[in-house]
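Incident log, structure service

09:12 report received: a user says their structure output differs between two submissions of the same chain.
09:20 pulled the input from the user's history:
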Amino acid sequence: QLQASGGGLVQAGGSLKLSCVASGRTYAMGWFRQAPGKEREFVARHIWSSGSTYYVDSVKGRFTVSRDNAKNTVYLQMNSLKPEDTAVYYCAAAKSATVLLTKKFDYWGQGTLVTVSS
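09:34 re-ran on a clean worker, output below:
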């Protein structure tokens, strides 16, 4: 079970930090977003064992994934937000390294809305 939180309304250039709490340990955590009228897109992927994180080009240098092992929580720190970052953000979890090939996550949380005003 996954639970994302932290969304809200922020002005362009501002910051927000999203949280995703997982009920158990998995292989990887992912962040996705879906803007109004658009398909869901990948934002970032974090691998628990290695600590490595991969970001989509559009958020590199602005978004950072961090984690709290004790709380089984992954965070998405979003800085320098732009109106085009407006979307419902979802966290997801993958059970195994298969995700690196298939890019398919096994578990999904409910989304949290991020609105960036210009």
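09:41 both user submissions now match this output. Likely a transient worker issue. Closing.
09:42 reviewer note: The mean pLDDT is 94. Residues 99-102 form the longest helix (4 residues).
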